[in-house]
Amino acid sequence: MKLYERVLNTLGWIGFIALVPVGLAVFGIPGPLNFLHGLLGKFGSASFLVILFYGLILLRVLFGKSEIYAPVLIGAVVSFFLMSTTTEIGFMDWYRKLTDSIVYLGNHRFVFLVAIGVVILGVLLGGLKKLHWVIQLIFLVIVPIALIVLAQIYGFAPLGAPSA
Q1: What distance in Å separates the CA atoms of residue 131 and residue 147, rounded to the nearest whole number?
Q2: pTM score, two decimals?
Q3: Does pLDDT of 106 surpass 50?
Q4: How many Å apart are CA 132 and CA 161, to the nearest integer?
Q5: CA-CA-CA-CA dihedral for 120, 123, 124, 128, to nearest 10
Q6: DSSP code, position 103
């Protein structure tokens, strides 16, 4: 592995670390996010940390080691839209207001975990040499949405009440 690939992998992990306070806030522990927001202002807000996460992940993928880019980009986009329903991202307020009435997206904790899983799966699938686009869409769009809907219908997402 080349030096720049190691640096980009490290940046990807820093992106995941930046998302930890947002995840804690979604799970009902807003202390770390409030601390960062008080310390760093806008640079410690949930919006900035989520954008930082996706920016670092895409930077790692686009300039790092990835065989195919479509699953990574599809996974990042689907994950971002799911994440936008769980956290307040300034320019995505229109989308959050639009999806607030959808019952299936009400368990923000579970949707947050699915969003993280989708982006990780997209990065992993990007390491494959070849993958048909139908398989990419099935695993990165249809399965996560079906999982969220089935979790709400059958109640197999025991993560408590949705967070605000």
Answers
A1: 22
A2: 0.87
A3: yes
A4: 38
A5: 160
A6: G
pLDDT digits (tens, 9 = 90+) for 44-73: 999 999 999 999 888 877 777 667 888 988
* Residue indicated by tokens 């996010």: 33
Report d(CA 82, CA 105) in Å as an integer.
8
3-class state of residue 132 by DSSP: coil
Tokens of 90: 């300034």
Go through the chain and tell me how many residues it has. 164
Specify the amino acid at residue 154: Y
Q: In angstroms, rounded to a whole number, what is the distance separating the alpha carbons of residues 31 and 17?
A: 16
CB atoms within 10 A of CB 141: 15
Q: How far is CA 136 from CA 48, 75, 86, 139, 144, in A?
A: 28, 9, 24, 5, 12
Q: Which residues, at least 6 apart from 59, have a Cβ–Cβ distance to it below 8 Å? A: 8, 11
Cα–Cα distance for residue pair 63/53, rounded to 1 Å: 16
On the 0-12 / 13-18 / 19+ scale of CB atoms within 10 A, 129 is exposed
- Burial of residue 33, with CB atoms counted within 10 A of its CB: 0-12 exposed, 13-18 middle, 19 or more buried: buried
